[in-house]
Design brief:
By secondary structure, the chain is of the alpha/beta class. The chain has helices spanning 2-5, 9-28, 38-46, 51-61, 76-81, 110-120, 125-129, 140-149, 167-188, 194-217, 227-237, 242-262, 287-293, 308-311, 322-334, 345-357, 372-387, 404-417; strands at residues 66-69, 85-88, 132-136, 155-158, 272-278, 297-303, 362-368, 392-397. It starts with a helix and ends with a helix. Bound molecules: Double cubane cluster. Residues 71-73, 109, 111-112, 138-139, 141-142, 279-280, 305, 336, 338, 340, 368, 371, 373-374 line the site of Double cubane cluster (BJ8).
Length: 418
């Protein structure tokens, strides 16, 4: 299978050796009393390029469309409705950076560098399996990255309106969704109908509802699941089969809800509670959560695209026609508060609301190096959070381990003061 996919066997082998070692050191060894059902997610990491890749390859052989995506603004519902498979391809490690050297400037966001490295370096079987990629016009780095990736594999770009509160923004986004639908119909050989779209909306809602229930349990003190485990659940949801996710998430949620009822936690009651807000944390980026949770505090919520932004807001269906359903999709997706929009005051409101709901002691504003949009918002957010009486620590970092000791000092000092 690897040879057919064209994988770089050497580099891929190195990655497969390194990942379990890192996972054991971060997830298995330091954590106590994890929910039993996390065993599934441990297995998924151990088998990261195993069963799921075989499933995707088999589905492709059976004629199903496989699409790689990089952003929450690409609606999974459309791909699922057309019997396609959607795989999130954002990169969360600097392992692959060597492969994007020379095609990207040094000072670029690590997420983009990583994703391009995995793709161009032929290390990611999901990328190699994809029929095509769907990019989007969110940040400048991504926009230009599509031009580079496009030389290796077809990239279809969805153009997002950047002033999303304007009335014409919705019309523009709907037109973009319709163009995307035409592309997906052609690639899949299937036709979007009100029936298959409604079924896909219901399936994705079921997955989001379970993630929402999981997050609800994190409002409890003691918290029944670590931030690291909750983050892993969200990271895997981006590429695993939605039906399997619904089944396994259902079991996990029942277990952690029972823990809340019994007052059982992974840490002692009264442990300091942290909300992390900012750029997404693609697998295997566990850096900040690991530092926080080995410094005497718990991450109880993430206002990120690998956190609340992933599941908040429902597709409110108000009619049976395809047009009404597409409009409902546009409404839900334009409600996501990413820093690539201007203005983006909804994010500020979200963080302050979440800080209250999760009863946090402090907020870490997390930004990946060279992510201008989130870095600029962090300056304003720091002031707003302080005005609201919420302790805040801004952190800008990348995927390397070089600054870990320094970050640990800063985070420990922050936790002591809150
Ligand atoms: S909706 S956060 S997934 S764009 S970190 S690549 S913004 S320079 S990932 Fe994102 Fe969609 Fe927004 Fe979410 Fe650019 Fe920043 Fe890098 Fe980023």
């Amino acid at each position: 299978m690897w040879t057919d996919l064209g994988i770089d066997l050497d580099k891929h082998g190195q990655l497969m050796e390194a990942l379990p070692v890192g996972f054991k050191a971060i997830y298995v060894d330091p954590q106590q009393n994890r929910p039993q059902n996390m065993g599934f997610w441990d297995f998924v990491v151990g088998d990261i390029h195993g069963i799921r890749v075989s499933e995707v390859v088999k589905a492709k052989e059976e004629g199903r469309m496989v699409v790689g995506t990089f952003c929450l603004y690409v609606p999974d519902e459309l791909i699922v409705a057309l019997n396609g498979i959607s795989i999130g391809l954002c990169g969360g490690t600097n392992f692959s950076d060597y492969a994007s050297e020379g095609v990207l400037p040094v000072n670029i966001c690590p997420l983009i560098k990583s994703a391009l490295g995995f793709s161009l370096g032929k290390i990611c079987p999901y990328y190699l399996s994809a029929d095509f990629l769907i990019g989007e016009t969110t940040c400048d780095g991504k926009k230009k990255a599509w031009e580079i990736l496009g030389k290796d594999k077809e990239v279809y770009v969805v153009e997002l309106p950047h002033c999303k509160d304007r009335p014409q923004a919705k019309a523009h986004f709907i037109a973009e969704l319709k163009a995307l639908i035409a592309k997906l119909e052609k690639a899949s050989g299937n036709k979007l109908t009100p029936a298959n779209l409604k079924a896909a909306i219901a399936k994705i809602k079921e997955k989001r509802d379970l993630l929402r229930r999981l997050y609800e349990t994190r409002k409890a003190d003691p918290v029944p699941i670590s931030g690291k485990d909750a983050l892993l659940v969200s990271q895997v949801a981006f590429y695993d089969d939605p039906d399997r996710q619904i089944q396994m998430l259902g079991k996990l949620v029942e277990e952690v809800e029972a823990r809340v009822e019994n007052g059982e936690g992974v840490v002692e009651r009264g442990t300091k509670r942290i909300l992390v807000s900012g750029t997404p944390m693609a697998i295997p980026n566990w850096k900040i959560h690991h530092i926080v949770e080995t410094s005497g505090a718990s991450v109880v919520c993430e206002e990120t695209c690998t956190g609340t932004r992933y599941f908040s807001g429902d597709v409110e269906v108000k009619g049976d026609s395809l047009d009404k359903l597409i409009e409902a999709l546009a409404n839900r997706y334009l409600g996501i508060n990413c820093a690539c929009f201007t203005p983006n005051t909804g994010r500020e409101e979200d963080i302050i609301r979440l800080a209250g709901e999760y009863n946090v002691n402090g907020v870490i504003l997390y930004t990946l190096n060279n992510c201008t949009n989130y870095e600029i918002e962090a300056v304003t957010l720091e002031k707003k959070l302080k005005e609201a009486g919420i302790p805040v620590l801004p952190i800008t970092t990348d995927y390397s381990s070089e600054d870990e000791a320094q970050l640990k000092n800063r985070i420990e000092a922050f936790i002591e003061t809150i």
